[in-house]
Design a protein that fits this description.
The structure holds two protein chains of two kinds.
Chain A lengths: L1 H4 L5 H35 L3 H25 L8 H20 L3 E3 L2 E3 L5 H23 L4 H21 L9 E2 L5 E2 L2 E2 L3 H24 L1 H11 L1 H6 L4 H27 L1 E2 L6 H14 L5 H20 L4 H14 L3 H10 L5
Antiparallel strand pairs in A: 1-2, 3-6, 4-5
Helix pairs in contact in A: 2-3, 2-7, 3-7, 3-10, 3-11, 3-12, 4-5, 4-6, 4-10, 5-10, 7-8, 7-10, 8-10, 11-12
Chain B lengths: L2 H32 L6 H19 L2 H27 L4 H23 L15 E4 L2 E4 H23 L1 H11 L1 H6 L4 H23 L9 H16 L4 H21 L10 H10 L10
Antiparallel strand pairs in B: 1-2
Classes of the chains: A mainly alpha, B mainly alpha.
């Protein structure tokens, strides 16, 4: 009985864990190596289009990882995650717009000139997303269950309409970025250079989330998902931990947002639409919730499926919709669940 | 705002509110009783409108179109309940959200394949065309008819829910699902009935709305979100809460559209929602224990 109460004292679990950790780090390194090979393979084939495709996949993978922190590890079904992506993307769009049009943005009598320096824009954009997550999260996390799903959806919709009605910034049609921001010596408008920036961002996001999940904070977060009552009983209020996770996820989604703005050279309300938020949830669940590599695979798989089906028929959602339903009804643990079942030698 | 304009906009708000109630009453029961998040409720609204427009184009008979739209959508609702919702009762909300999101993707695209992307128009029946004089303003008869029909439906629902045995089971289901199963009620039949009734009400809303807005793929998405706001404000599972919240949202949304700069009116309803949920996280009329 004492063993089950004090699992920390069990040395077998410890070595098994570190072996698994090494294995998963190995898989991560192979993935990074594969991704690093893409630009070379693409230029060898003379088709740089795939560089753009994989760039987009990696950006969506960052969104999916950040959502997984909230959804998978925190057990909070946020149906508005795209709002943090869109908000940051719009901040980038607005900075670039004022920099290239030369007409200053005036807030409360203070004029801002705009900028195309990513070292200025990106932190501001990410901080905006984090701040939004703090304000909306503080309200939304007072509710739970269904109410939480719907309130996050409603907040995202609110932001969507703000963007759609901002006629100075293109309204519903969106805003084209006339200049690509520069990141120190790097030009984000250059597809090859930008690819490396995005790859580095994905790797950093993955490592950061890994650290977070394995930390004491992550332990409390996971506990707040599996048994909030017990967590409260031992004297820890889940609210602050959930809110902190929500803000971190919002900031990471903001990072994905600034990259998205640069990759498309365009931002529009569609980047924060509720169907985008739904797609992000699909990616996380498809890949496998509460694993960090799952959402990355999920995002790659979803965009690849969209790309492949989109080539076959313009009505690819006729296939995607039922596919989602089948995976949810009959699949357990998504792609990650399938992968670990294969590794254990079971037929899934 | 001039008093007559204000009065007219209040009527428009009432009309929108009553239509939202048709959506929200069905959805709040499905969510409250089956504990099932049905995001595809907006798709049922769309299907009702499309079926009715199709029948109208073929026959030219408005009442036939109305009947066909409602019955057809109720059948689609039963199919969804049977094949997708039933395996999901008792599963995570997340699974339900995903599956019904998949239904939305599928049905929106299916509507585009069958009826095309161009919006379809549905004409007001001749006997409801024109306007009446209400305290000095000319108000369209059709909008007035929507208010009357929805009010009758609301009254009927109120009577069914408070005065009949079925209504008692529905209220009991919303308050404590396990208990009525324990008492030997045929819960599967009750679930299917509530789901189909919700689908029929959504179709009615879609058909009534068709002449005012347009019939097109994705038309259910916006109304779905308004409906979700309504049931969250009203308290999930409460039909009376849904009525109060529908009227509140309808009036606030309409006033916002008239008084605020274009587009910003869409945002106004989220402010009271956030405030209400901040103070009362379970809505105005919580029905769960």
């Amino acid at each position: 009985m004492a063993d089950t109460l004090l699992p920390v004292a069990n040395p077998v679990v410890g070595t098994g864990d570190s072996a698994r950790r090494r294995a998963s780090l190995g898989v991560a390194l192979i993935c990074v190596a594969l991704l690093a090979a893409v630009p070379f393979a693409a230029s060898a084939l003379g088709d740089t289009f795939y560089v753009r495709v994989v760039t987009r996949m990696m950006i969506f993978a960052i969104m999916a990882i950040s959502l997984d922190l909230v959804l998978g590890f925190g057990g909070m079904v946020c149906f508005g995650h795209a709002m943090f992506v869109g908000a940051a993307a719009y901040v980038v769009g607005i900075f670039v717009f004022h920099a290239s049009s030369g007409e200053p943005l005036t807030i409360a009598g203070v004029a801002f000139q705009g900028s195309t320096n990513a070292l200025v824009i990106w932190p501001v954009a990410i901080a905006t997303s984090a701040l939004l997550a703090l304000v909306f999260g503080a309200i939304a996390l007072r509710t739970s269950g269904l109410y939480f799903i719907m309130i996050t959806l409603a907040f995202a919709q609110m932001l969507y309409f703000v963007a759609a009605s901002a006629s100075g910034y293109g309204g519903i049609d969106g805003l084209t970025l006339d200049k690509a921001p520069t990141l120190g010596p790097l030009d984000t408008g250059d597809r090859q250079q930008f690819y490396w920036v995005v790859l580095a961002a994905l790797a950093a996001a993955y490592l950061l989330c890994r650290r977070i999940v394995e930390s004491r904070f992550g332990l409390v977060l996971r506990a707040s998902r599996s048994n909030p009552t017990r967590l409260s009983a031992v004297g820890v209020s889940p609210y602050r931990y959930r809110l902190a996770a929500f803000v971190i996820a919002g900031a990471l989604a903001g990072l994905a947002g600034v990259l998205l703005a640069s990759s498309q050279s365009f931002v529009s309300p569609a980047d924060m639409s509720w169907s985008r938020s739904g797609e992000l949830i699909v990616m996380v669940v498809l890949g496998g919730m509460a694993t960090l590599y799952g959402p990355i695979f999920g995002a790659f798989f979803y965009l690849a499926a969209e790309f492949a089906l989109g080539h076959l028929t313009e009505h690819w959602q006729l296939v995607m919709g039922p596919l989602v339903i089948v995976v949810v009804l009959f699949g357990k643990g998504g792609l990650a669940g399938l992968w670990s079942a294969v590794r254990r030698g079971e037929t899934p | 705002m001039a008093p007559t304009l204000f009065f007219e906009q209040m009527l428009n708000g009432l009309q929108l509110g009553m239509m939202l109630f048709l959506m929200a009453s069905g959805l709040t029961l499905v969510v409250g009783i089956m504990n099932f998040v049905n995001l595809a409720h907006g798709s049922l609204y769309m299907i009702g409108a499309f079926l009715a427009v199709t029948v109208l184009m073929q026959t030219g008979n408005h009442l036939l179109a109305l009947g066909a739209g409602i019955v057809g959508t109720a059948l689609v609702g039963l199919l969804i309940e049977w094949f997708i919702a039933q395996p999901l009762y008792g599963r995570d909300h997340l699974d339900q959200v995903l599956c019904t999101f998949g239904i939305i993707l599928f049905l929106n695209e299916l509507a585009r394949v069958i009826w095309g992307s161009a919006p379809l128009r549905m004409d007001v029946p001749e006997w409801l065309d024109g306007s009446v004089d209400l305290a000095g303003i000319a108000y369209p008869v059709y909008r007035l008819a929507i208010i009357v029909v929805s009010a009758l439906v609301a009254l009927g629902l109120h009577l069914v829910i408070t005065r009949t045995r079925l209504g008692m089971l529905i209220r009991a289901g919303a308050a404590d699902r396990l208990m009525i199963v324990g008492l030997g009620v045929n819960i599967q039949f009750l679930y299917a009935l509530v789901f189909a009734a919700g689908a029929a009400l959504a179709a009615l809303a879609g058909i009534l709305a068709a002449p005012i807005y347009t019939v097109q793929t994705g038309m259910g998405d916006h109304i779905l979100i308004l409906t979700l706001v309504v049931i969250v404000i009203g308290g999930i599972g409460s039909v009376h809460g849904a009525l109060a919240a529908s009227l509140l949202v309808g009036v606030i949304d309409t006033i916002g559209r008239v008084t605020l700069p274009a587009g910003f009116g869409n945002i106004l309803i989220y402010v009271p929602m956030a405030m209400i949920l901040f103070w009362r996280p379970r809505g105005l009329f919580p029905s769960h224990g």
